[in-house]
Amino acid sequence: MTNKEEIHCHCECGKTQLNVAKPPMLRFHCHCTICQKLYKQPFSDVTVMWAKDAKLIQGEFIEYRRPGLLLKRGVCTQCEQPILATMTLFPGVKLAFVPANRYGDQSLLPKPSAHIFFHRSETAMDDGITKYNGFVKSELIISWLIVKSAFAQLFAR
Asked: Which residues pair with 90 in a beta bridge?
């Protein structure tokens, strides 16, 4: 896949759609209770990219729920499914998070790098992916993985 091809993503009902300019730089599983409630799943399977690379093309039905200080979680108001979250790190530096199951072609996604907030996990897992317990450890590892992936992407150009 070349960087010129866009990856199409959509919610379950198709009312909210976005295009991603290039494959995401990171993928992880989050077991926090917020994700469990929002995704109605034992964990979320999420991809990360620069926000400039994720563009809503049909987004009149998106509503941002459970806003935190940094992370704004966008849900389609028609099917009630997460579609796009954003996080501003610094003025002008913003990340986007898109659930892995919103991509039409899963082969374009990186392999998951970590399970975070695993102390909240509802099931035991032996999938070979490193698990991180606790709030501080989970926040630190996901921050490190994002920085590491961002630098790798910058130097790959």
From this structure: 93
Whether residue 3 is predicted with pLDDT greater than 60 in this model: the reply is no
Say how far apart CA 116 and CA 146 lie, in whole Å.
13
DSSP string, 50-86: EGGGEEEEE-TTEEEES--SSEEEEEETTT--EEEEE
Domain 7-155 fold: glutathione-dependent formaldehyde- activating enzyme (gfa) (3.90.1590)
What is the pLDDT confidence band of residue 101, given thresholds at 50, 70 and 90? very high
**What is the Cα–Cα distance from 157 to 146, expressed in whole angstroms?**
17
Is this model's pTM higher than 0.70 or not?
yes
The average pLDDT across 81-105 equals 91
Phi, psi of 28 (to 5 degrees): -150, 165
| Domain locations in the chain as residue ranges | 7-155
Distance separating alpha carbons of residues 12 and 127, to the nearest angstrom: 26
Cα torsion 142, 25, 51, 81: sign = negative
Give CA–CA dist 31/118, Å, rounded: 6
